[in-house]
Write a structure and sequence with these properties.
Elements lengths: L23 H18 L3 H6 L7 E3 L7 E8 L15 H17 L5 E6 H8 L1 H7 L7 E7 L3 E5 L14 E6 L17 E9 L34 H7 L19 E2 L4 E2 L4 H8 L2 E2 L2 H15 L8 H4 L3 E5 L1 H9 L4 E7 L8 H17 L3 E5 L1 H8 L15 H16 L8 E5 H18 L2 H8 L7 H11 L23 E7 L3 H10 L15 E5 L27 H11 L8 H7 L7 H9 L3 H13 L7 H24 L3 H8 L7
Parallel strand pairs: 12-13, 12-15, 13-14, 15-16
Antiparallel strand pairs: 1-2, 2-7, 3-4, 4-5, 6-7, 8-9, 10-11, 11-16
Length: 673
């Protein structure tokens, strides 16, 4: 054999690089950075996945002194304008917010969960669309769910080495990278927006390896837990204000009650409600004094000699938040067309006092501003969410209770009409009967909204029926005048297609219309004055008898006063059930006075007592333990008297609402021209 020369010898095989083992503390810091940065700029974690986000990660260890460092980059698309925090255009401001928020989460010692699931189980829990977007390995049979409550959620095909809680990290120090677009524009020439930074993790860490998988199934996040993480909303807005500035978190114990935690979504309201934080979370605006004065002037102008003035709900900040109410005021000041839209899901034959709030206020707006009003009865929704099926017992039975909710529509309609709506300017309709007219718009909304968006907003999972996922479009459709070709005259008068829409509702209904506003431009003419977006005015929740938390519910008869209650039932409920903010003894009450914020009787008087001076007098007496209304019994007695007048008057008006009157209100006819 010919001897090979040195030059002709093949090069030695390259040594394979050992795979880099990334420590748990680095992985944990990376998740913190993802969750916090998305929360600060108001980006959906799900959308970041679907936008092919680029995460560039590199771990570096120095020989002389090992350091836990890494590089990290997140691409948020072409411009921050896609997200909520568009005002954070300055790189230093963004990084400052991220740095403060990370330290806050570290101080909270937030638990970090990782679960192993069969991929089909994950799809059942979170929806096929969500799982398939997050898991890039199409052949994966097992997946791993990573969950930091209220901050981060991901589903991956491989297990990640993580710490057990964020408190194991002492701090994460960021090095700012100035190569971020400081001039943000839209359109074809818009610049790419990328957060890019180096970070170093500090703390005492062991080399014991992975922290293990979470075993408690109860710790798995539910679909509703992910709603805010999947929305393009600033989730750390409250932290940017007061919470991050605290030097240290308040001490907590493992067994501390969490019943006071605020939960507000389209299906659940509980806990102590902080309305300022709720406005930050939802991205709405508080009704400022200047807008209130413009509204008052508008009422005076359109009402003439019979003008009612500002409703007590506005004077007292019960309707407190809005989306584009100023746009509606602009339109009405120019004598442009506007219509009102509100609704009710008929779930019980007897409505309670809390149900009255939006209808009393909408009827006031109709009278004060001389506006047409459409009222949607969502009997279809209640069947989709609460319907039952039992095997038929007769040849004509279908086995379901759809007809039950349709019958409730008529009964609830009597209570709504009794609130004082003007028949000639009001159309009250059942979805089951009228949906055909709205169907073209419903189809357009379906085509415009993705399943992942609906899942992110409302928390639907793979176990929910398809009707639930489809329903939000049905509630969105009445926001557009074109859904009422006869009622709002759009079939004969194309100018009516440009009518603005104002929706009075409790703030928990806002998610439906955030979705609506995102796609509204697709359903209206190009020059529509609002871009098709409905305007909203939000009310606070009417508290239950047991305390100023959450809202009143029909399912708990002891928490509510129903419009069918007798005087004796009202007296017994208020006397026995209404939570008192007063002191335990007369002596202490005289010395300290009552807490008006927690006293249900006083809070209810703010809703229903018309006289502002008398309400102030009651509040002054009760809070100081002096005067005529110094004691809880005195305040409860006043409330009972007011409620008796309110309920008795409502029952009398309702008795006048015959079947023919209901038919007149539900008859399809023109109410705008």
């Amino acid at each position: 054999l010919e001897t090979m020369t040195e030059e002709s010898k093949p090069p030695p095989p390259k040594k394979k690089k050992e795979p880099l083992i990334i420590p748990a503390e680095i992985n944990t810091a990376q998740l913190l950075l993802q969750g916090v940065s998305a929360g600060v700029v108001g980006a959906s974690l799900l959308d970041l996945k679907s936008r092919n986000q680029k995460i560039k990660f590199q771990s570096t260890f120095l020989k002389e002194k090992p350091r836990k460092t890494g590089k990290f980059a997140l691409s948020y698309g072409k411009r921050f304008g896609d997200f909520a925090a568009i005002e954070l255009k300055d790189a230093d401001a963004i990084f400052s917010e991220i740095s403060k928020a990370i330290q806050f989460i570290i101080d909270q010692k937030a638990p970090i969960f990782q679960f192993e699931l069969d991929i089909n189980e994950a799809r059942e829990l979170y929806g096929k669309d969500v799982v398939d977007k997050m898991v890039t390995n199409a052949t994966a049979e097992k997946v791993f769910v990573v969950w930091i409550p209220d901050l981060f959620f991901d589903i991956t095909a491989t297990q990640v080495d993580l710490l057990e809680n964020t408190g194991e990290i002492e701090k994460v120090e960021l090095e700012f990278n100035k190569n971020i677009a400081s001039s943000l524009t839209s359109g074809a020439k818009s610049k790419k927006c990328e957060l890019s930074f180096k970070f170093e993790v500090f703390g005492e860490f062991s080399d014991s390896g992975q922290s293990g998988l979470s075993q408690k199934r109860s710790d798995l996040p539910k679909g509703r837990d992910l709603c805010k993480l999947f929305e393009n909303q600033v989730r750390l807005g409250a932290l940017k204000n007061e919470e991050i500035e605290e030097e240290a978190p308040k001490p907590t114990t493992e067994n501390e009650e969490k019943s006071d935690e605020m939960v507000v979504n389209a299906f659940e309201v509980k806990g102590i409600i902080d309305y300022d934080k709720l406005v930050d979370k939802f991205g709405s605006k508080l009704i400022e004094e200047d807008l209130l004065q413009r509204f008052a002037a508008l009422v005076a102008k359109r009402g003439g000699e019979d003008a009612e003035g500002l409703h007590r709900f506005l004077r007292r900040g019960i309707f407190f938040s809005h989306r584009d109410l100023d746009v509606i005021v602009d339109l009405l000041e120019k004598d442009k067309k506007v219509f009102l839209y509100t609704g009710r899901g008929p779930s019980s034959s007897a409505m309670h006092l809390g149900h009255l709030i939006p209808f009393q206020f909408t009827a006031y707006l109709q009278r004060a501003l001389d506006l047409p009003c459409v009222i949607q009865m969502t009997d279809d929704e209640k069947f989709l969410f609460k319907g039952v099926y039992k095997p038929p017992t007769s040849g004509t039975s279908t086995g379901d209770n759809l007809s039950y909710f349709q019958n409730l529509t008529v009964e609830n309609a009597r209570d709504i009409i009794a609130c004082g709506f003007i028949k000639e300017k009001t159309f009250l309709f059942s979805d089951m009967e009228y949906v055909g007219r709205m169907y073209p718009n419903i189809v357009k909304i379906w085509r415009s909204v993705t399943t992942s968006t609906v899942t992110g907003i409302f928390g639907f999972t793979g176990s929910d029926n398809i009707g639930k996922v489809a329903f939000p479009a049905v509630q969105a459709a009445p926001s557009f005048a074109s859904s009422f070709p006869t009622v709002l005259g759009t079939a004969k008068n194309e100018e009516n297609l440009f009518a603005g829409c104002l929706i009075p509702c409790a703030i928990d209904q806002d998610p439906y219309f955030r979705m609506t506003r995102d796609v509204a431009h697709r359903l209206v003419p190009k020059d529509h004055p609002t871009g098709g977006k409905p305007s909203l005015i939000h009310s606070k929740f009417f508290p239950p008898l047991q305390g100023s938390q959450g809202k009143m519910s029909s399912s708990d008869t002891n928490s509510a006063i129903f419009l069918t209650d007798t005087k004796e039932e009202i007296r017994e409920k208020i006397t026995a059930q209404a939570f008192s903010g007063g002191q335990e003894t007369s002596k202490l009450q005289r010395e300290l006075g009552a807490n008006l914020e927690t006293d249900v009787s006083y809070q209810w008087l703010t809703f229903f007592l018309e006289d502002d001076e008398l309400l102030k007098s009651i509040g002054d007496d009760y809070s100081t333990g002096s005067g005529e209304y110094w004691a809880t019994g005195k305040v409860k007695a006043k409330l009972i008297s007011e409620l008796n007048v309110l309920v008795e008057g409502h029952q009398a008006r309702r008795a006048l609402v015959t079947d023919d009157v209901v038919k007149d209100f539900m008859c399809e006819r023109n109410i705008i021209d």
